[in-house]
Amino acid sequence: MAKRVVITGMGVLSPIGNDIPTFWNHLIQGQSGVGPVTQFDASDFSTRIAAEVKDFNPLDYMERKEARKMDRFVQFGVVASQMALKDAGLDIEREDPDRVGVYIGSGIGGLKTWEEQHKIYLKRGPNRVSPFFIPMMIANMAAGQVSISTGAKGPNSAAISACATGTHSIGDATEILRRGDADAMIAGGTEATITPMAFAGFCANKAMTTRNDEPEKASRPFDKERDGFVMGEGAGVLILETLEHAQARGANIIAEVAGYGMSGDAYHLTSPSPDGEGPARAMKRAVEDSGLELEQIGYINAHGTSTPLNEKYETMAIKSAFGEHAYRLAVSSTKSMMGHLLGASGGVEAIATALALKEGILPPTINYEHPDPDCDLDCVPNEARRTSVQAALSNSFGFGGHNATIVLKKYDGAD
Asked: CA 152 → CA 165, 179, 355, distances in Å?
């Protein structure tokens, strides 16, 4: 029989807070983390705003020698994992390290390192490229460095599925625990791609907003005047444990990971499948996997990127998956405040969803000013809502047609 999996700790670095209390307070207050780009000169770009992690100094958490060997996305992943372990009260030195694993992904990896080392190569030649270039840049290195820094020797892997990465990582880690291959997993996503080349690429395919004069209003999921996403950065990491392991050590249980579903669009490089057919299958599979009825789902943390096609098709997907119950669901996009954290979004949004269940407060979709007839669901507009929800979905969909959904539910205290 598959083991039950629960969340016992969480760590976050985000555009709206670098610890769980700050992150949650800003989320339910509807505070935007979007502003002008500060990490490089964006004056020549059509998009000049981003949702940056603020006041982050890796030397507050690690030695300079170690920090210099890590790209920013790896630093984020290591720090968020340390936070999550502390929150969970999980001391790996007191555990069997072979039974504690890591599953942390990144959609793009060390693009900042790639750009910096490429400049050195062009200017000074191949012999001056850093010997740490490859291990700093590759997208699995957050998982590798977390294992090294924590001593976790169990299953170790990294999902790389664009914007579905964080949710795939949590879902895959859950499956590892369900089948008994580990007692605890450090799982989530991390990303740091606010760089010139990333901006150049996304500006070229016209995926990002050009509402530069109103940064805090630029990310507006489900609003009729949405014109593209705001790039964000950060990391969201959860400590997942089998229920029996968490109970045996007296851990504080935040929520339960009840279901996981994924699918492929088999359609297009960047556009979602027509009518949201692929995401609908992922949601249906996740709910079926949870053993819950559709009517027991009360909230969906939407992918909600603030792009014209995503919300239209995600709305259609929710209707396809839930039928008439879709109109009784609350659906909000926390990307309205944080921007799109790409591979980290699923990890951070899973944290938001778990807190929504635990605290009985649904985060809002801010900047909802112009109703879109194509997006006619309850998107919790502009203000957080106090309500008791027993189970929720978190959706993540990525370029290439990768779709991932997890179902979280309140922990009922029953074995």
From this structure: 21, 18, 26
If phi > 0 it is left, if psi is from -120 to 50 it is alpha, else beta; for residue 167 that is: alpha
Kindly name the residue from 163, 203, 375, 379 that is annotated as catalytic.
163
Residue 190: its H or E element: strand 184-191
CA distance 412 to 68: 45
Q: At what angle do helices 72-88 and 141-150 cross, to 10 degrees?
A: 40
Could you give the C-alpha distances from 68 to 39, 53, 134, 266, in angstroms and in order?
17, 19, 13, 40
Of 299, 340, 344, the residue nearest 322 (C-alpha): 299
Please provide residue 110's backbone torsions phi and psi, each rounded to the nearest 5 degrees: -85, 65
Strands 391-398 and 385-386, by their bridges, are unpaired
355 pLDDT higher than 70: yes
Contact partners, residue 309, CB within 8 Å, separation at least 6: 271, 272
What does the angle CA 169 – CA 330 – CA 187 come to, to the nearest 5 degrees? Answer: 15
User: Would you call 188 helix, strand, or coil by DSSP?
Assistant: strand
Angle at 27 between CA 23 and CA 33, to 5 degrees: 80
Are the C-beta atoms of 343 and 163 separated by less than 8 Å?
A: yes
Residue 412 has pLDDT above 90, yes or no: no
Indicate whether this model's pTM tops 0.90: yes
Residue found under tokens 């309500």: 387
Q: Measured between alpha carbons, how far is 142 from 110 in angstroms, rounded to an integer?
A: 10
Average pLDDT over residues 56-81: 97
163 included as an active-site residue: yes
Per-residue pLDDT tens over the stretch 330-339: 999 999 999 9
What domains appear along the chain, each with residue ranges and CATH number?
5-248 (3.40.47.10), 259-403 (3.40.47.10)
